[in-house]
Design a protein that fits this description.
Shape: elongated
Strand content: 25-35%
Largest sheet: 6 strands, mixed
CATH architecture of the largest domain: 2-Layer Sandwich
Radius of gyration: 29 Å
Low-confidence stretches: none
CATH topology of the largest domain: Threonyl-tRNA Synthetase, Chain A, domain 2
Strand order of the largest sheet: 8-9-10-11-13-12
Structural class: alpha+beta
Number of helices: 8
Number of domains: 2
Distance between the termini: 63 Å
Mean pLDDT: 90
CATH class of the largest domain: Alpha Beta
Helix content: 40-55%
Length: about 300
Amino acid sequence: MSVAHTAEHLFMGSLKRLVPSIEVKKVETEGEKGIAIILSKHLDWQIIFEAEKMTNRVIDKAKEIKEHFFDSLEDAKKAFPSLRAYEERITGKTRAIEADGYDYSACRAEHARNTKECSFFIVTKFSKAGKDLFGIEFYVGESAKMKALEIAKICMEVNEIVGSTLDTLKRTVQNLKDDFLNTRKRLALLSKKEAEDIKFIEKNGIKIYLKIFDGLDNKKLMEKAGELMKNEGSVVVFANRDENAFLILGRSPNLELDCNAILKEAAMKFNGKGGGKPEFASGIVDNDKVEDALEFIESKI
């Protein structure tokens, strides 16, 4: 725990040099792993990368970690104007941790005696945690080295899959993503046109609109179902294939069909999930079971 706290101080000290307005709101460490929540208007991987480099340079310089004790936080700030502190949590006597002129932080936790004990520092995850809040996961020491090797291995494997080099990996993946989104958009437009004129079959005096789509936006499909459900004596049974098959079952107000019960039964029978209201329900099943699920639902009407 001591090396994780020490490395976190060095990293935050580095981030403050790059983005002075950054504030640390919370830090949790366990062994050689830590998570920090920071407040900042902006943060990206390039800033984190620069701070990582700065942190590891300081680690390699084997700077001494020093303790200073003061009667109050105010006295500590007079001695070290750049001192970082959770001011709302500190009262009375204050302990300041100094990384030999690089970083000053008010902290009660155990620390290493020298930055060299941290060995290596790496950030493994970075994401939004709220308004102007970011969560940063990091590792220190041997765990950090293993994580770095693991990340390098994954990058090399992805290089092989997409046929790129390390220098072109980011651009190649971005191009693949753009191509995928464009293809999905074109497929959605085709499906939308297909949804504009849906024929119905009649069963026991009920009009059943039953169809399977591919890649249509689920929201658009629900809107179309809502339009058809306005027709008296109508039932809509739609499925939309994507990562899973999205199911929709709805009926017009003059019918007494319990869509919720039927869809739940279908989902249970075909290893899916779903539910809703008596007049409208939705859920998902595996793509390879969608025909069977629709056939089962139709049999219940």
